[in-house]
Amino acid sequence: MAAEAYAMSNASSGGQWLRSMFEEFLLGQPKRAEEDHLLRVRLVGDAKAVYDHLTSSKAAASQDKRVSVELNLLRQELQ
């Protein structure tokens, strides 16, 4: 589960960076985080354990604390 969580976190960060660069190219400046964006970043994964953790309101904590932190950060980004 750790590899999938890190990969999804990296993909999320890369997608947000790419969105900011694209909006800066089109609009002359990137939008702020709280504004509506032209593009949405969508994450697609096939790891059921990561999906269950992100969609459950009360998911079991991971054995690895670093993975738990990554999953909680992803959950916050997706809300």
In short:
The chain is mostly helical and 79 residues long. It contains three helices and no strands. It has helices spanning 2-27, 48-55, 65-78.
Would you mind describing this structure in some detail?
This protein is mostly helical. The protein contains three helices and no strands. It has helices spanning 2-27, 48-55, 65-78. Helix 1 (2-27) packs parallel to helix 3. The two termini are 21 Å apart.
Q: Output the helix-strand order.
A: HHH
End-to-end distance: 21 Å
Structural class, please? mainly alpha
Helical amount among residues, as a percent range?
A: 55-70%
Main beta-sheet strand count, sense and barrel state: none
Low-confidence stretches: none
Percentage beta strand: under 5%
- Give the C-alpha Rg: 14 Å
Count of individual beta strands: 0
How many helices? The count is: 3
Mean pLDDT: 81
List key phrases describing it.
0% strand; 79 residues; 61% helix; elongated; mainly alpha
Task: Write the topology of this structure.
Blueprint: H1 2-27, H2 48-55, H3 65-78
